[in-house]
Amino acid sequence: MNTPGALVVRAPLSGKLVPLSEVPDPVFAQGMVGHGVALEPPTSEHSVTVVAPVSGRMLKVMPHAFVVQAPSGAGVLVHLGIDTVKLEGNGFTVRVAKGDQVHAGDPLMDVDLTVVREAGLSACCPVVVLDAAEDAITARSQDEDVMAGQDLFAVSL
Q1: What is the chain's Cα-based Rg?
Q2: 79 included as an active-site residue
Q3: 50, 59, 71: which is closest to 97 by C-alpha?
Q4: Which residue among the candidates 35, 46, 64, 79 is catalytic per the annotation?
Q5: What's the distance, CA 4 to chain centroid?
Q6: How far apart are CA 36 and CA 20, in angstroms?
Q7: pLDDT of residue 139
Q8: What is the pLDDT of residues 7-50, one digit of tens each?
Q9: SS (H, E, C) the chain
Q10: pLDDT confidence of 1, banded at 50, 70, 90?
Q11: Separation CA 116–CA 82 (nearest Å)
Q12: Dihedral of CA 28/30/33/37: which sign?
């Protein structure tokens, strides 16, 4: 994905590319926090290591979500599952802290998908650029399988 003047966001985990509009949460599905895509981890996966989607500074770190601020100032939000805040950190191992500098592909968290799924929650993982306009996003093909670290989408800045 070679888009001049754009921020390329990489997949924080492996999974099937899902349009944001199909995420089972209206905040993400309606683009209220920004636009991007989502990843649905394979049901055969029991745990995943989540990697940094861009290089930058960890702006916010919670067990179920994080924001990496790229040097351009753009914030990339990765939300690990839907309603996973209800797990109160159970099933999540955080490897970084707020303020840490990271490089795209660095391991940030481990997620026990079995804990998420056994709680009856969706493991769908929205990846959005905060406050980005929908037409600023150039994504891969829908329903494509993506490996962690591969280019996921580009956002015009």
Answers
A1: 14
A2: yes
A3: 59
A4: 79
A5: 22
A6: 6
A7: 86
A8: 999 999 999 999 999 999 999 999 999 999 999 999 999 999 99
A9: CCCCCEEEEECCCCEEEEEHHHCCCHHHHCCCCEEEEEEECCCCCCEEEEECCCCEEEEEEECCEEEEECCCCCEEEEECCCCHHHHCCCCEEECCCCCCEECCCCEEEEEEHHHHHHCCCCCCEEEEEECCCHHHEEECCCCCEECCCCEEEEEEC
A10: low
A11: 9
A12: positive
Amino acid identity for residue 112 in this structure: D
Closest CA to 90 of 109, 64, 122, 124: 64
Tokens of 41: 């981890």
How confident is the model over 80-97, as pLDDT tens digits?
Answer: 999 999 999 999 999 999
Side chain identity at 48, as an amino acid letter? V
Structure tokens at 33: 């926090």
Residues in the chain, overall count: 157
CA distance 79 to 19: 15
CB 137, CB 6: distance < 8 Å: no
Q: Using the structure block, give the residue that is written with the tokens 């799924």.
A: 117
